[in-house]
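[SOLVED] Need 3D model of a three-part complex

Original post:
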Amino acid sequence: MKPSPFAYAKAKSLDHAIELLSHPEARLLAGGQSLMATLNMRLSAPKLLIDLNGIGGLSGIVVRNRTVEIGAMTRHAEAARSPDIARHAPLIALAMPHIGHAAIRNRGTLGGSIAFADPAAELPACLLALDGEVEIAGQTSKRAVKADDFFKGLFETALGPHDVLTAIRLPAATTQTRVGFAEFARRHGDYAMVGLAAAAKADGQALSDVRLAYFGVGNTPVRAKGAEAALAGGGIDEAVKALASDLDPAADVQATAATKMHLASVLLRRVTQQLMEARP
Amino acid sequence: MKIVDDSPPVLTALDRPNSYIGRSVPRPNLARLTQGRAQYVSDVVLPRMAHVAFVRSPHAHARIASIDTAAAKQSPGVIAAVTGAELAKVITPWVGVLTHLKGLKSAPQNAMAVDRACWAGEAVCAVVAKSRAEADDACELVQVTYEELPAVTDPETALDPATPVIHPSINDNLCFERSHTVGDPDKALAEADAVVETTFVFGRHTGVTNEPRSIVADWNPGDQRMTVYQGTQAPHMMQNLFAKHLKLEEHQVRVVTKDVGGSFGIKVHTYADEMAAVALSKLLKRPVKFVADRIESFVTDIHARDHRIKAKIGVKTDGTITAFEIDDLTGIGPYSVYPRTSGIEANQVVNLVGAPYTTPNYRARARVVFQNKNVMCQYRAVGHPIATAVTEGLVEMAAAKIGIDPLEIRRKNLIADDAHPSQGPSGIKYEALSNHEALAHLDTMMNYAGLRAEQARLRKQSIYRGIGFATFVEVTNPSAAFYGVGGARISAQDGATVRLDATGAVFCHTGVSEQGQGAEAVIAQCVATSFGVPIDKVRIIMGDTDNTPYGGGTWASRAAGIGGEAAWQAGKALRGNVLAVAASILQAKPETLDIRSGVVVDAATGAERLPLHELARICYFRPDTLPAGIQAELVATRHYVPKAFAFAFTNGIQASYLEVDTDSGFVKLLKHWCVEDCGTVINPQPCRRAGPRRRRARNRRRAVRALPL
Amino acid sequence: MSSHRCDISLTVNGEFVAETVDARTSLVDFLRDALVLTGSHVGCEHGVCGACTVRVDGMIVRGCLMLATQCDGSAVETVEGLSDSGEIADLQKAFEQRNALQCGFCTPGMLLTAQELLAQGGVPSREEIREHISGNYCRCTGYHAIIDAIEAVAQARASK
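Solution:
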C-alpha cells in the first residue's frame, strides 16, 4: 500500500520547523523508521511532513558538566559506536544492539525513538532508568522535562502539537554507576516481549538510587518502584515479590499477562546480577 | 564449523565421461540474481499498464448491501472502479472440488465477492488507476455498506446445528470427510500394555514469500490474446484456468513465468484477486498489474496447517506399536481453493500418520470444515508436518511411558529396509525405502550415545537439553493419482524439447519451472549429461506456455524426478539423432560414436571426429553435402510420467538438539541433523541447503547434513 | 515552502539524476519505477524484511522508509551500481558458488548489508555476521550458506 498524499517541507531551522508545525495535520520526520512504516500502511495520514534532517545543530554527543547531551537527531548508529556513550552512558550502549537492525540504526534517531514512545521500545525505558530529561523547543520557549514526567500514555508524551524534542540529557556515569539491560524478544531486533533497563549507584555490595524501568508491560515504560526499594534494601527475592504490585501488564499478541509477569521476574534477577558487577 | 560435505558419489552407469550427475554445479541463473538484473513479475512494466488495488471486506461475514463507486471514479488517475457483480460478467466463478476425494464439496467462488463477503480480506471492489498510490487513494472513496452476518470462526462448532451454514446451497459447513480403518484398532488399543492419548493443536501458517503475489495481465484485443506474467509454479494449469473462466480458447492464453521471489506452494493456487486482475485487463483492454502488499499477503495468501488432532497410540512393553488412531479437524476458509482443493492436506494427514512403521492397526477420521476465515490450501510439504509431528510425538510419548529409548522404539517399528515393495499403515504403496539405514547413519552422525551422556551430565548442572527425532516418509513425483483422476486439468506428465542450434549449443524447453530451488540447474545437468555437452552450452527455456511442452510445472519435487527424466530422455534422443547424421557424415556406424564435451568422438578410443558446431554448420547451411536420404533432425522431444507407482516415496530422519531455558521458556536450537534418502543425487549442493530438496532417479543415495548453529 | 511534488537532483550509481517526484514516493519505488532500477525489491513496505536495502551517502538504509525527496543532493547506490563497479564481485561470486541464494529476492539487500559489514574490515565471527544480517529476511536458504559466503569473503579480503 502507498501512503496517503502529503505535502513535504524540509525545515531550514528549528524555528522554521516549529512554524511549519502550525499546520493542523503535520508530523515531524526524523529518522522515519517508525513513521514511514505507519504511513505506508495508512495507519496514519498526516497532510504535511516536516523533515528535520536538514537542521544543523540537532545532532551530536557532548559530555560536559557531568551530563551526556545527545542531540535529538543523533542516529542510533552514531551512538552505538560512540566512545563517549560507551564510557559515560553505558546503559545506552547496552541497549543499542537490540534496536532494530543495522539499516534501521543508520537512520533512526534517539530523539525520534523517545518522542515516538513505543511502549516496547528500549530507549524510553533507558531514559527513565537513568533519570534523564529531554529538552523541548516550543513556539515561545524551551523547557526541560524529566523522564518521570515525559511518558504519559500510549504513544503520548509531554510533547505538544507545536513542540520539537531537541536534545536528551543523561547524568554521566560515575565510578559508582551500575547499569543493567536485558530483554526477551522472539527474534533479534524485534520489539521486546518484556524488557528491563536499570541503573543504580553501588557502594560495595549495597545498591542505592535504584531505578528499574520495564518496557513492554504497559502503555509507557514503567518503573517498578516497590522492587527498586526492595533491591536498595538488599533483597532480590523481596524485589521479585514486589513486582506483583509494581506491574500490571496486559496480554498482547506476544504473551499473556502471566507470561509477562514471569519474564519480568526473570529479567529482574538477571539484571540485578548485572547491577552487582563492578564496571570494568 | 561449516556445512558438512556429502561423501563423494559412487560412479554408476549414469556417470558418462562428462557427467554432471552428482556434481555440485552452480546454477546457471544465479548471476542475474546477484546483480539485481532478474525479472520478477513485480518488475514487469508494459506500455499503458495500469495498477489495481482492491477494496477488501473488513468483516468476516457480511452481506454487501451496496457499493457506490462514483467518488472513486472521479479520483485522480483512476481508470475504472469495478464491483464484483460487474466483473462477474467477464469472468465466471469456479468450484474447488476433485471427484476422487469422495464427497468433497464447495460453493462457487467469484473473482470478487458478489452479494456477500465471506472472509475479512476478500476483495469486494477493484480500483484500476495509473499508479498503485492513486488506486489506493480511490479505494478509500469507494462506499460499501455491509450488513454483518454471524461468522463461523471455530472449527469445533462449525458443524453444530446451531452454527450458521455459510453456504446453504451445500447444506452444511462440511467440506470433506474421510474415514479410514485398517486392522482392528479398538482391539489393539484395548490389548496394548500402554496407551497414550493426547491432542495436538497446530496454528495456521502461511508461506510468506519475500516477493508478494504478483501478476501482470495483458489482453491484446488486436491479437485476441491474453498474456499473463505470473509468478506461478504451474503455468499450463493457469493457462487452462484463465481460458476456461474468461471463455477463451486455451491457445488464446499465454502464461509467462520468469523469476519468482519464493513460492513454496503459495503461488501454485488460483487466487480470486489474480483472476480479477486478468478479467480487468480483458475488460479494460490494457495491461493490469497487481502486486499484493504485505498485509494483503497475510490475509489472502493461502493459509495451511490449522489442525486439531486427537491422537492415540498403543504400545507393548517390548516397544511394539500396535495401533495409531487420529481424529483430525481442520478449519479452512469459506471456499475450497481451486483447482487443487482444500481437502488434500487432511487427506495427506490420513495417508501419512504412522507411515514409516509396520503398525497393522490404524484408524483415522478427518473432517475439513468451512469457516469465515482466509482460505487454506497446499503449502510446502502438504500434510507431512502435521502427520509427522503427530506420529513422532505419539511415538516419543509412548517411549517415555514404557521406558524405552526413543531411537530404539523407532528401530523396533520402522518397516524393514528389505521388506519393500510394501505399504504403510494407510495402504500407501512404497517401492523402496531405507528407514533403518537412515536411522543408523543418523545415530553415528550425531553421536547419539555421546549426546545422551552430555545431556545427563549437564542436567546435573541445571542445564536442560533435549534430543528429538522425526522419521518421515515423503510423497514426491505424483502420478495422475494426485489430481488428474479427480478431474483437475493438472498435468502429471511433463515434457522436454532439446534442440541443437547452429553453433553447437543446446536449448532445452521444459514444462517444469524455477522458483529458486534449482530446477533450471538440474534440467541443465540432465541434458548436458545425456546429450554430451559442457553445461555452459545448455540454455534452459522454462515458464512459457507458448514455448515449452505441455507440463505440470514445479511442485511435489517433480521438477527433477519427472521434468529431469523427460529432459534426460530428450537429451538421449537428440544424441541418437545427431549420431545418425554424424555417422553418415563420417561414414561410420552410429553405435561406434558418442558425443562428449560437445564433440562427436569415437566411443571406444575417445578420439575426436567432428565438433558439434561443425556438424550443425553442415546440417543447417550445407545440407547439400549430406548423403541422399539423410534429413537431419536436430530436435527431439520426450515426455515422461510415472506409472509403476502412484508416488515416489522418499524417506529420512531428522534430529534436533536444543537447550531450554527453564527460567524463561525460551528455546535455543544447538544442532540439527537431516538424513534423507533422495535417490540419485543430481546436484549435492542444493541438497545440502536447509529445507532439503530432492533430486530423484533410480538408485539409493543419501544426502546428509549437519547444521552447527 | 511545502509541496506535494518535489524537484530533486541526486546521483544514482554515480549518474546524475534530476526528477520531479511525489512527496510520498519512497526511495525504493522511485528507483524501481522512475529509474527502472528493479534490482532493489519491495517485500514488506515497513522496514522489516530488508529486501529494499540500498546505500544512501555511504550507509545502508531501508529504501521503503526513506522518501525519494529526502535524497535530494545525496548519492544513492543500488545493487546494480555495486555490481557494475566490481565492489561486490567477490561477494557475488561467493554467493553463487555456495548457492547462498535460491529465489534471489533477498539477495541484493543481503549483498549490500554484507558489504557494509565487510567494509568495516577484519573478520567478523559467524555470530557477528548473523547479527548483522538479521535484518535481511531470507525465506529460502536457511541462511547458513549466506553466512558461509560472507565469512569466506571476509577471510579472503583480510588475507590480501
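Edit: Chain A touches chain B through twelve residues (CB under 8 Å).
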